[in-house]
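Rather than argue in generalities, we have chosen a single entry, letters for residues, whole numbers for local backbone shapes, without further comment.
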Amino acid sequence: MKKLLAASAAIGLALSLSCAPLHAASLSVWAVDEPDDYTAKMAQEFAKLHPDVHVQIRKVGFAALNDETMRAVMSGNMPDVVPIDNPNTAMFASKNALLDLGPYLAKSKVIDAKQIFPGPLKNASWNGKIYAIPRGTNTLALYYNKDMFKAAGLDPEHPPQTWDELYTDAQKLTDAKKGVYGLAFSAINTEEGVFQFLPFVQAAGADWDRMSDPGAVRAVAFWQKLLDSKVASPDTLTHSQSE
């Protein structure tokens, strides 16, 4: 059974430089939607090092990635390199669809697994073996517009420090007649919404495995308050993280 070479979160062709067998005349690579088309750029760099290997890139929408990959696994028509969203690495590895990268990483002069942060590396592993190379890890931050703060009579040098202050400031920034909302985040019913919600759970003293904890309940109630009072757009329920 042919096995996929996976890059966690998104494709990194540097992985192919040290790990992929280069005797083939072509290398099939899937890529998800990306802002700078970095897969194509890395493929060009790869081509300079390996002019005898033709890189074929296929764009796959992020929302369809799991289904497309699973169909490819079941049909036996898999690409050589595929992007895997890190929560799904274990699922594909457990189905014997991904290549164990351990032996290749041990010989690699390009990738040093010890230089990868433990969290992302663990997400790219299953049963003690590494099946993907983390390209990057999402982080969250709260951005605010200083000009809008000034216009609303708020002090731009003192952003909100608590949930109560965040709510109060968001109210002052909201102008429903102009379609302006004081706060934006993603509460879509996917892992993206979960990723946005978990920091609120942790800030309230709960954790991912204790969603019935009073802190988690407070986090849910706060999000509900933001939506009910319309300081967050109704589109919050359908916004993806990129939006």
